[in-house]
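This part of the workshop introduces the protein records we will be handling. A record pairs a protein's sequence with a compact description of its fold. Comparing a sequence with its tokens is the quickest way to learn the format. To make this concrete, we reproduce a full record directly below:
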Amino acid sequence: MRRCFWILLALLGFLSSAALADQNALEQVDHLYLERDQPPKEQMGLDLLRRELAANPRNDEVLWRLARALKWEGDQKTESAEKIKLYKQAADTATKGVEANPRSVGSHFWLGVGLGKIGQTQGILRSLFLVDPIKKEMETVLSLDPKNDGAHLVLGVMYRKLPGFWGGSNKRSLAELMQAVSANPRSTLNHLELANTYLEEGKKQEARTELRSILDIPDPVDPVEARKDKREAAQMLDRLR
């Protein structure tokens, strides 16, 4: 009996160490993602994710991070066919995360984003069949994480870009994007997309306020995205003067 106790204790210790190693790897992946515009860091993150996935193919925490990385790779391509190929890979990878854990917020979110990027690249009118699946994923995210700013952001952009006959509405876009900004004011992209919807509504002063907010954020949640958004915000403010 005593021997069984020590074997069980050792096994629990091993499992705890393995879990800790996985968590450390995920933290490293997240850190590398914040420097993904540096090619060596991007590749290091991908290599680490693939090693983790080989060890545990049904780890949803690894799968959604890999989907995120594949989406970024797609963003960097110039040819539509290459973009769509990587966005589909991102969506397929996130789908595996959802299958592994139906309550995985990250997997549902990046599945919706992957589908959205496919639709954006193909063109809105050719991709209306994707609207309901994207909404479903974002609504699932919000049911699991009501303060998830990313889901509000995706819905806000989608409502602005959709034609009115398919549910497009700047009013709904503003409501979603305001919630995104409220939930995460350190996201430059939340402010930028809210400014874009304000401009669509002809509300230039409100747009200026959001654009200035982008320039004033000292510690954005995503430094890579922020550098791009700050440049765009400055250019937009110049045009609005």
